[in-house]
Each structure stands twice: as structure tokens, then as C-alpha cells.
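Q: For a teaching session next week I want to show students how multiple molecules come together into a single three-dimensional assembly. I've collected the sequence lines for a complex. Could you give me the predicted C-alpha cells for the whole thing so I can convert them for display?
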Amino acid sequence: MTPKPKLSCRNVWKLYGANAASLLQRSANPTEQDIRSAGVIGAVRNANIEIAEGEIFVIMGLSGSGKSTLVRCLSRLIEPTGGEVLFDGIDLLRASDAELIEIRRHKMGMVFQHFALLPHLTVLQNVMFPLTIQAVPKPDAESKAREVVELVGLEGREDNYPRELSGGQQQRVGIARSLVTEPDIWFLDEPFSALDPLIRREMQDEFLRLQERLHKTIVFITHDFEEAVRLADRIAIMKDGEVIQIATPEQLVMNPATDYVAEFTHHIPRSKVLTVGGVMSGELRGEGDPIPLNAKVSDVAEQIIAADAPLPVSDGAGQVVGSIDRKAVARVLFGKGDRA
Amino acid sequence: MIGLTRKQTVILGLVIFTILLGYFGRDLSKTLDARWLTKFPSAWVIPFKTYISSAMAWLIEDAAVGPVSFTDVTRTIAWVIEQPYNLVLSLLADGFARGQGNDAQVLLPAISWIVVTTAVVALGQYCRDWGLAILVGACFLYLAIFGQWDSAMVTLASVLIAVPIGAGGGLMLGILAYRHPVFERIISPILDLMQTIPIFAYLVPILFMFGFGPISALVATIIYATPPMVRITTLSLKAVDPEILDFGRMAGSTKRQLMWRILVPSARHSLMVGVNQVIMLTLNMVIIASMIGAGGLGFDVLAALRRLDIGAGFEAGIAIVVLAIAVDRLSQAFAERMGQVHKPAAGPWVHRHRRTTLVLILLVLTWVLGQFSPLLLEYPESQTITTGAFWDDTVEYLNVNYFDTFEAIKVFFLNWFMIPIKKVLLGIPWLWAIAMLTLLGWHAGGWRLALLCCGMASLILLSGLWAKAMVTVYLCGASVILATLIGVPMGVLAALNKRAGTVINLLIDTLQTLPSFVYLIPVVMLFRVGDFTALIAIVLYALAPAVRYAAHGVRSVSEDLIEAGLVSGCTPGQLLRHIRLPMALPEILLGINQTIMLALSMLVITALVGTRDLGQEVYIALTKADTGRGLVAGLSIAFIAIIADRLINAGARQARIRFGLES
Ligand SMILES: Nc1ncnc2c1ncn2[C@@H]1O[C@H](COP(=O)(O)OP(=O)(O)OP(=O)(O)O)[C@@H](O)[C@H]1O
Ligand SMILES: [Mg+2]
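A: Of course. Below is the structure for the complete assembly, covering every listed component.
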């Protein structure tokens, strides 16, 4: 992980209710009991997160666990009740309205669950919108917009209105619009939850393809653990407003911090989470084409099972670092619990 | 009397005692030699109206902030409205002329009827289809052929001025209320009050400030038509998807960009509904506004009504309806069109705006060729058709042949329904009446409501309008009883039977598009002036909400309950009596509440046919431009409306709580 955090938050609280502010003034760290007896709702409780540059950071949790609230605190769409949000070293919560507008115009992009497209504008006008309000000259804005429309594969639909598009296409517009200002950080609040499963998969692939080209710092929200695992570098799991674990998908499956996390990871096929590197043996043996260290077991399982002998495993530089055989794969596919 | 609780017995006893007391009240007070029991002594009256009149006089003559006097403000407002109004009026009706009176030199005549009709046809076709185009075209042709063109254009001119000002002003106030909750909290009760005070009450002060004439009429119309737009604006801005709001902020919009480029366009669909409301209310005001100086169709109706010239009144009345239909349909289609997706056409301007081009060419052609053939400018008078004689003959025929029948109906209703109610209400000693009202308020909604009832009723009493208020309650009450007896069953029927529902809906829709005055004309024709005529006109006008709410209430009874009833073996009749009606009761009560409000707002109009209630008081004040008298009577009507509204709402709430629909 790159050491320099792009976006981080410390002790962020968001409490809803009449006595929210006074409660936090009385004690910096109120317990669940305190919160309940004060009659307030703890939408986000004491969140501490560091997101590194170029990372895909997924926030995961059930409905109502506070994901949207947290991400809106990070972009200061919602004013946190307490805490600190640092973006490129600037304290967002101290920024003036004008500064905030500047930061949002140039450095932040956001994609919404229900697309939030403006119904009275065409696809092209929607995508251009963030530039239009910055008073970018129209020809520049338009050529930039056409570029991102092409990037998300919507060329030819520029003059359609949102309601003439399918859900998947609408979200492509939403994605194009959030990218048109070339933001540093990209927030996506359940961007694919309103789409049906097939389209969702397609969009996830599309998203990974885009990220390969753009290398944004990404905060991605989802309530779907499978989606989280497919996309994430790291996952934060939230429950009742609290962040209970932040880890890589593999670590989550291997070392769940609580029973709640274990319960979550239980249903996901382990072969989709675990990488070859996590289950290989250190012996340098085997022959044939080496398998990459960071491949998911499910993607290479067939190849390994089909081979009679163990296969070598190589790291990113092409150096063989270990080997893997059928038994290891079988344990992942059919085994329970403990690691190889 | 089985199974009455003690409380119910007490209530029943009180009701019966009150009725008896009212019935014999007059005689009782005479025999006791205590007339003050039923008739509030005039020595005790507080002269509110004199206070108000002198306050108004001070406002107009002396009030000033620094060098700017109150009259300067009203003059400026008048000037601002007058400029566009004169322009539109010249275009549509008067033409442009230099000089005055007889030696005026016509520079440019008004737009020809051919061009206006073509323009609305083109607009209809643009907004929806040829069907609509033909409908609105036919409406405008009707106006030309039946000789109502000139008046209709004067009316149209005032609509074209009042609607943008009302809609635009409403939008601004609505936005302000959306942005500043404090402002919303201030303006909300004012809007409430404005919707309960009958329009007539504020006609008087407006007349006082702006003088008799079209500007006063426009100001009154705008004040009347704006409140719903404010409400709808605030509501629809609040209803914009929060994600869209978040997007706007994330994109880095300034506050102004957020409002005008994101919120307002996103809410434009509901906003157009508000504009449509403004249009309908403006048309509703047409006749009333003519009382303080609007010309056009409204003036024609009013003048005919005063002359009791049924034929002419009917014709002008129908012309208003025709105009209302055309404008209403057009504006609705326009609203729909705004909400739709449409591709901008390519090509040069003329190509993209074919309809506009056509109309413009026609306009120039008629202006040029009109120099030679006046037919192109004005529909020839010799070709107009008048139905006035026909209506007169019809009424004559009906009156000659069916006089006895009509008379019998009228006498029956008067003797057995209206006069007894009137006698009871006028006979109840005022002390007792206020005490009962307070008790009722306390029973329905606690001490706050009790205080409100007592206070408002006492104010009416102290202003010396008790008897007239009782006549108002009687007229309004009798009408509401009748409207409920007719409307609720109709609503229930509409909800239960699909075919009946269609017919009833059509009927109610029609009744609601008619301007309130129009009801008066046919009824006067058949029953002549008097309380009974007023009763029928009010019932017709106020029927709609009773039907609508009852139908909605019955329809929205939960399916589970109906199924539970069916499973327990209810017959359809039992289902209605034991499940549907009781569950729909809160809705039905709210419908009756609306009916009362409409009935009260109709009262002043029925004053034209000689009722002797608060409505008449306002009407007289209007003709005499007596501000204090008009406001006091208007406020008394508003007090009655507020008392009724709060009592019924409290009752409906109790019913809902009883059924577990609300906690
Ligand atoms: N304006 C508000 N006032 C009071 N409570 C709120 C408000 N907004 C959110 N909450 C509460 O905060 C909690 C977290 O809400 P949030 O929208 O962040 O959940 P979420 O994880 O995004 O859920 P979902 O998956 O449904 O989007 C919920 O319990 C919600 O009821
Ligand atoms: Mg959410």
C-alpha cells in the first residue's frame, strides 16, 4: 500500500437528533447506551479511515448501517457532528463555502445509486453539466464530454434524454458525468445496486477496465459482499454506524474480526476471494507456465486441476516464488474453515 | 334508546334541548320580556368597522415611510401592472391609436380573430395533436360566431397578465419559503387565512387602494390565484430527489445554480400543475373581478344578472366556460409537453418554427389587407348568432307550463327544511350558543380549540353581526346538509361501481370547471330570487368535494379488511355498512369540510339574488366601497369557516385515532 493517504477521517461522528451536538461535547466518545438514552440516532460512530492514493476502497454494510452517511461526511455533503476529514492534507470541515465549491468542481466526482441525472437535459448536456456550471467555454466542454461519453461506450446516444436509456446506460451517463472534470477522488454510492444482476456484472467489468486506465482514488459503497470482493483493494465493514473491520478481502475471509464479519464472508465462495499466493506452498517445484501470485483461485482452478503435476507460481516480476497443486485447490473449493 | 353510554345520553339531551330552545327562543324571550336574550343589544356592539375604516383612511391619506407615502407604493404597483396590460389589451382588443375619443387615429388595429384562432390551433397541435387543435379552434370560433369575441379578448388579456405575475410571484415566494424555513413558518398561516377568507372581503380594501378599474381587478385576481402556486412550489422543490440535490452540490454549483439549473428544472412538472391552478383560479375570478372594474365577459354576466336578462347572462356565462375549457386544456397539454422529451429540429429558423412563421405571415397579411376588407380584422356582426332569445323563450315556456311544479318544490323545501332551520338558529340565545360551541370545541380538541371557538364567536357577536352570521350558518348549513345527502351516496356509488364512477366523475369535473357565477343563472331563471335559489346554486357549487372525498375514502379502505369481512360472510350491504363506511368516515368528514369552505365562499355571490346574510353585508360594502364594513363581515365569514374547519378536523382526527389509522 502506498504510504501517503489521499483522504482520511479521524473520529468522525454523525448523530441525528435534537441533542446531538451537546451529547458529543459532553463526552468525545459516547457509548451506545449514552446515544440511546439521549434519544439520538448514531448514523456514523467514531469512524477512522485512511484511503491511499490510487486505491479502490469499498465500504460495505447492510442497509441502514451508515455507509451513505459516512461517504457524505467524507465529501462534506453532510456536516459531521464531530471529527476531522483530511483531503490532500486540507481539513475539509474548515474549508469555506467557496473553497469547498472549488474542491468539488475540480477534485471530486460522485456517482449515485439512482443515477441522479437531470431529466431535462440530453446525455451530452448531462455529462457537460459540471463543466457548464464552471463556465468552461462550450466547445471545450463539449469535446471533453464527447471524450468521456466514448470512454463509457455511449457514443451515438449523445442526444437522447435519460428516460430513453436503460438503467445500465443511465448509470454509464452518471459515470461519464462524474469523470468529466477529471477528479482525483471518485465516490460511488451503490452505483450498481439498482441494476439487475447480469448488467451489474457487466458494469463491474467496465468499472475495472476504466480504473485500469484512470488510476483514480476510489471510495465505493455496496451492500453486496461479492461485488466488494471483486472490486476492492480494501474493504471497510460497517454495522450500526460503526466501522468494525478494515482489511483486504482475503484477510476478511481468513481472519474475520467478529462473528458478524464471519457471518458475512461465510456465504461467499472462498475460491473467489483467496488468491493463489494465499494458498500456495513455498516449495519451488513444478513445471509449465507459471501462475501469477495474485490470481483468484477460482480463475485458475481448472488449469491447476487439469495439470497432473504441481504448477509454479510467479510474482509480478516473473520470479517463481512457490508452487500450487490440485490438493490445495480442492481444499479451497470444498474445504471448510481453516487455511491450507 | 338501547346501549347509550352516559356521555352519549348527555350529548343527545343537550342537542335536543338546544333545538327546542332555538325553536321557542323568540317567544320565550318575548314572554320573559328579555329581548336581549336572542337579540344582541346594539348598545353593546363594538364599532370595529369604524375603527378599520379610519385606519384605512389614515393609510391612504397619511401613511408614509420617510418621503415614500403609501399611495406612492400603490401607484407604482398599479403602474407596473398597467403597462403590460395595456399592451396586451391593445393587441387583442382595442388596437393602437393616437389621440383620444372621436378624433383618435388608428395606428394599428387589434390582432384579427383569424390570426388568434389560427394561433391557438397551432398551439394545440404543437402541444398535443390535431384533436386538441380542433377543440380549442372550435372554442375560439364559437366566441367569434356567437358575438362574444370582443369581451372574450378583454378577459383573455387580463388572464394573460394575471397568470404570469401570479405564477412568477408564487414561484418566487415558494422558493423563498423553501430556502428559509422561518419565512415558510410566517407565510404558511397567512396562506391558510387567505384561502378561508372569501375573496370579497379583500376586494373592498383593494378597491379602496387602487380605485375602480381593471388594475384593481387584476390585483385582486393575482392575490386570489397566487397562494396555491406558493404551496405547490415549496412542496415540489422539497420533493426533488435528494440524490439530485447531492449531485448538484458535488458538482460544485453555487446556491443560485443549484436553484435555477437543478431544482427548478427537475421540479418543472409539478410546477406546471401549479401554473394550471393559477390559470383556473384566474378564470374563476373573472366575474367577481368585474365587480371592481374588470371589463369583458365577467362584466357582461354581471350586468345581465343585475338586469335579470337571463339570455344575455347565459350566453356570456357559456362564453366564459368555453374560454376556460380552451385555456385549461391548452395549458395542461403545454405542461405535459414541457415534461416530455422532444428532439430539437435542425435547419434554419423558419424551418424549425413553421407554425410561428405561419401565424406571423397571417398577422401581417391581415393587417395589410385589412385596410381593404374589414372582414379580415373583425368577425362581421351581421353573421353572429345569438341564443339569447332562445334561452328567454325556454325559460318563459318552462315558467308558463311548469310554474306550479317549480313553485311546489320551492315551497316544500322552504317550509319543511329551510325555514325551520332558520328559525332554530335565529332563536337560540347567543349566550347559550357560544357556551355550546365552546363545549363542543373542548370535547373535540381540548381547551385550545374551546378558546378559539369562544373567542371567534364572541368577536362576531361584538361586531353586531350575530343575526346575519346565523343566517349565514343557516344557508350554508342547509346547503351542506343537502350536498352531503346527495354527494356522499354519489361518491360511494362511484367507488363501488365502475360505470357509475365514470359518469359521476365526468359530472363532477364539469361542475368544477364552471365559474361559480354560472350556477346562479339557470337557477334564477327557474326559481327567481330568494333563499331557495341561493341554496341550489351553493349545493351545485359545493357538491364536488363531498363526492370526491367519499369516493376516495371508500376506495382506499384496505383490501385486507374487505377480505376479512367477506370471509366472515358479510353481504355487500353489511360490508358497506360495517366496514367501508366507518373506515371511510374520516375522509368523508374532510370532504364535508371542503364542502363547507366552498359553500361559504359562494355566499357572497348568492347575495346577488337577495339573501340577507354576511355575504350580502360584504356585497353592500363593496358597492359602497365601505372598507370597514366589508372587512368585518368578511372576517366574520372567515371566522365561521375557521371554527367549522378546526372542529371537523379535530373530529376526523378522533375518528382516525379510534380506527387506529393515526396515533
Ligand atoms: N436525515 C436523517 N435524520 C435522521 N436519521 C437519519 C437521517 N439520514 C439517515 N438517518 C439514519 O442513519 C442511518 C444510516 O443511514 P444511511 O443512509 O447512511 O444508511 P446506508 O448504509 O446508506 O443504507 P442503504 O444501503 O439503505 O443506502 C439509518 O438508520 C438512517 O435511518
Ligand atoms: Mg445508502
